[in-house]
Structure formats: C-alpha cells, structure tokens
Amino acid sequence: MCGIVGVISKAPVNQLLYDALLLLQHRGQDAAGIVTMQGTRCFMHKARGMVRDVFRTRDMRALPGTVGLGQVRYPTAGNAYSEEEAQPFYVNAPFGIVLVHNGNLTNAQALKAELFDVDRRHINTDSDTEVLLNVFAHELDLAARDLPLTAEEVFKAAAAVHRRLRGSYAVVALIAGHGLLAMRDPFGIRPLAFGRNAEGDVMVASESVALVGTGHRLERDVAPGEAIFVDLAGRVHARQCAARPTLNPCMFEYVYLARPDSVLDGISVYQARLELGETLAQRVISTMPPSQIDVVIPIPESSRPSAMQLAQRIGKPYREGFVKNRYVGRTFIMPGQAVRKRSVRQKLNAIDVEFRDRNVLLVDDSIVRGTTSKEIVQMAREAGANRVYMASAAPPVRWPNVYGIDMPTKEELIAHGRSVEQIREFIGADALIYQDVDAMKRVVKALNPALDGFEASCFDGRYITGDITDADLAALDAQRPLCFDDDDEDAPPASALALPVAEQAR
User: Would the CATH topology of 3-248 be identical to that of 268-462?
Assistant: First the structure.
C-alpha cells in the first residue's frame, strides 16, 4: 500500500503535490518523494520520513515546473530502510521517464532476470518499482523507435507492459517533454482516480480524497487495464490496453486502508463500513444476547462507522472509550514487530469511566496478527470492565496478501490454522465475533453491482491473478521488507517471527 499522485497543470505544481501527499499520508509513512518537470528537465526530492518532515521550504523551491508526481511509501518488498528505494524512480532512456507505483509485482524476480539477460537493462535495487519502470521503458523504446512519440506509441507500450507483469499495480509516470501516463492492472486491484479542476488541470491519485481536497472534481476511476495519457497541453487520451480486464478491487481498501471520505470504484468507503457494521450486528445477535452488552466501543479509527452502525442495530449506546494519540503512526505500517508493539499503549489510552463495571463490546476493523487485540483487551480490563467482548468488522485473516499489503506469512497470522475459540483464548476476550466472508462481499458489492468481484485473498485464500502457488508465497515472503539490521537489539529473534503471536496489523 502506497499513495501516488500525478498532475499536469498550467501553474507550478510543487505545493499542489505536497498537499495531495498530505491527504494520502495514511497510505504510507516510511518515505515520501516528489518529482517536477520543467521543459524536459526533472527535479526530484525524496527521503525517508513523513511528508511534513521530508519537504522543507528549500526543498520546495528546488521543485519548479507545471508537471509532476509524488508518492508516500509503505514498503512491501525490498528494504524498508533504504533511501534508494524511496520513490519516484528515474531512468534516462528513452526520453527520460519518472515513475511511481502502488502495488506489488508477483513476478518481479523473474522479470529482473529477464531484463538483464534479454533486455540488457540493469536493476540496482530490490524494489519491484524499479523493475516495473524498466519494463515500461524497454517497451516504450520498442514502440517509439524511429517514430515521433504519440499517444498511440504510449498505449502500445502499456499493452506490452500488461502482458509481461503479474500482480497489482497502479502507476503514474512522466515522460520528459511529452506528458503523463496513468495505468492500472487488468484486475483493478489497487485504486486510481482521475479528475480535473475548474481550470482544466488534470490530477490522478490513489484516492478521490486527494482530488477533492485539492480543488479537483472526481470524474471517474481509471478502469482495470486502462491507460490514460495526458499530453503537456492537457489533452486526455484513454484506451483499454488489456486483453481481458475485470474489476476486482482490494477488499481491504474498504475495510481499513482507504480514508472513509474517499470513493473507490464508485463505492463510498464510509458507506461500505456502515454496511459491514450492519452485517456484523447480525452476527453478534446470532452469537450472544445483546442484553449481555452494556456499551459498544470502537478501536480508533477505521472501525468507527461499523461500530456506530452495530450499536444502533443492537440498540446499545455507542461510546468513545479510547483516546488516540494522533502523533503516533499507524502501527499496521510500522516496519518491525518490536516497533509496533511498543507503540500500542503510546497510541491508545482508555477512558476509565466508559469501561468501569460494564460489559463492553470492542469493535475493530480487523484482527491480523493478534497481539494488539490482546493488549487492548487487557487495557479494557485494567480500566474496570466486567466483561470484554471483541468483534471484527472483517472476517478472519487466514492467508497472506501478495498484492501490496504487508500481510505477513501464514505462520504469523493469528487466524491461520486456528479456530475462533483458540483466537479468543489468545487475545483474552470473553467472546469473539467475526464478520462473515460472503456477507462482507455481498453488502459491499451491492453498493456498485458493476464490480466483477473483489480481491479478498487474505480472507478467502483465492488469489485473483490465478498464478500464486505455495512456492510463490515462500518466495514472496523472502522479498518482504528488511526492517531490522542483524545487530539491532530490538529485532525479534528469527524463531519469534515464526510464531502466530506477532502483533496485530493496524
């Protein structure tokens, strides 16, 4: 999961890109980068850290131009600590191309070897984004050789890219002196939205909130397999470049990743979470009498809409029982178990009066690794709760995600190979209620019947691209971000990483 944005404007875009990245900060906190283009010259600044820390006034002044793109990074492959793997990535031929990418290529290693042995291109990092960039650069070179570059050649290259890549990818690229390209994988797994402002300036971004929050109007989502090329005059060219595209967005975007004020593929994220709360309420009612519950309390922040709807449905009061420190990052996207674990109590503090002498139903968006849930249940007991029940707005996460979300190995997932009762015992709750997989898909799809389905592999074990084997899962696990140095005293021992008690992804 990363956040990407690209802009073609009539005015300088450095501040606009900065503002858009702030609106996408929730999608990645590891690194940030911006590239702008003036004529055919590119200006880049990228570094590890949050947007507000990476870009100072002097950095912004060094980013002139009316065309640009940016990214906030959350690493799912390569080295989480590497400055070199911060995006954007640049290659000088053909033309000069700069690219940002959200997603994960499942055949990156095979492509890397192919690029070196056949295409004679060198990859210098472990980032699959550099692989993607070089595949596109090679195909664009072939398509435009001895020809002036037009949208036709760009689309020909995009079609060739789709034929070679496997996995998930939403991409924005700048071609020096020519324009901006946006494209999305043939399954539409990762989101990408397109819009314009009153002046006709064009923006593409991972979520609609980045468009609306910067004064642009959301026109539509980039379709699966589609390529949109915007020339420097602002003319928009679009074409379907995949052979058999289908729309199967990532369900975890609606469960947790995206901001609630975004609209992804025609579905309000907020409305989707309300619907998940409605079906979760039905599961609660069928599991235990609501009379046993005194109060419904969300675990901030993604679970709030589901918790509110659940509370209304079962006729119990909704209360804010935890205060979140907004200056501690999302633990789901903090690399390393020890870092996540230390942050739980720094991030949340219980309001004792909402727990004391009550039977509380805690509602979370999902339970992935499990130890954060265990910590939160303990916090509720320490605050005086009589009984602590836990409900998850998502079904059990039983399989790794290979499409750009840092879902860990099967052995680290608390629900893999375990019953709900075993999970309940581990987290220490008096009852544990999960969302139903089929109900989740049904209610979210009802918000946009045009969807073909969902990428929900972490819940149902079905990998939408159809090319993932157990051997692939083992190989992809080896590509997960390097988060600790060998001599880091905070790094968990190798044996600990194989246990299913690693901390819950938040």
Answer: no
